[in-house]
Amino acid sequence: MLVFIIPLKSQQVSKSWSRLSQLVERSVKSICNQTSPDFRVIVVCHEKPDIQFHHPKINYISVDFPPPNLDSASFGEVRGIGDIDKAKKVLTGLIYAEKFQPSHIMVVDADDCVSKYLAELVNQHPQCDGWYFRKGYVHEEGSKLVYLNTKNFNQSCGTSIIIKYRLYHLLFLNENYYDHHNHLLKDGTVLEELPFIGAIYIIKNGENQFMTIARTKQIKTRENRLLFLIRKVMKYRPLLLTKAMRYNFGLYKL
Length: 254
Description:
Elements: E1 2-7, H1 17-31, E2 39-45, E3 58-62, H2 78-97, E4 104-107, E5 113-114, H3 118-124, E6 130-132, E7 136-140, E8 145-149, H4 153-156, E9 161-164, E10 172-174, E11 177-178, E12 192-193, E13 199-203, H5 211-222, H6 225-235, E14 236-240, H7 243-249
Parallel strand pairs: 1-2, 1-4, 2-3, 6-12, 7-13
Antiparallel strand pairs: 4-9, 5-13, 6-9, 7-8, 8-14, 10-11
Helix pairs in contact: 2-5
């Protein structure tokens, strides 16, 4: 069984709770469109999102630790605070997932969409240590295009690793930092490359998880703008967003 874990940021740090709830609803619909019924979804949150979609495979887990206080944080601290909140929620979801006796787990950012074939893949390969998403789509909300990252999708998107449940501790540097960037884990375990596109990273939707501001500043201060654009063109291949893609990933317009 594959258990999907969605760490959801608090309403207190959301720009628009109604907008975020729409994104979460689309994400859980995407997950629940799996071709195999052998999966579960755990949403870890301070407040349950305001959505109309219900499914017997979805569990909501409320946390009682304080939400991050971004108002009092300096510009450079925003990303770190978001990372800590996310890591604590992921860990909460992982501990809760034990009751379902999963073979594998996958963390999904609350505004992303995933392929409907993931649970089926896990069922077909229950002994595999896991997979990383070297390739993946990036989609700007409202656009008719997707951009295919063929090199290192897992370096930029948190929805990018499936791992055996017994190995999940290898994704944590400590209890405050969840690391999805590497396919070579700290004990030497090597994750396989996912044999198909597994996720769509949704950007510019108004509610991207905490990294947006910090990442924007990095781009502006560390790289020449022209050099950044050249690298982006080389790394991302634009494709038309087709009906088949929308169906596979459950991606619909909000």
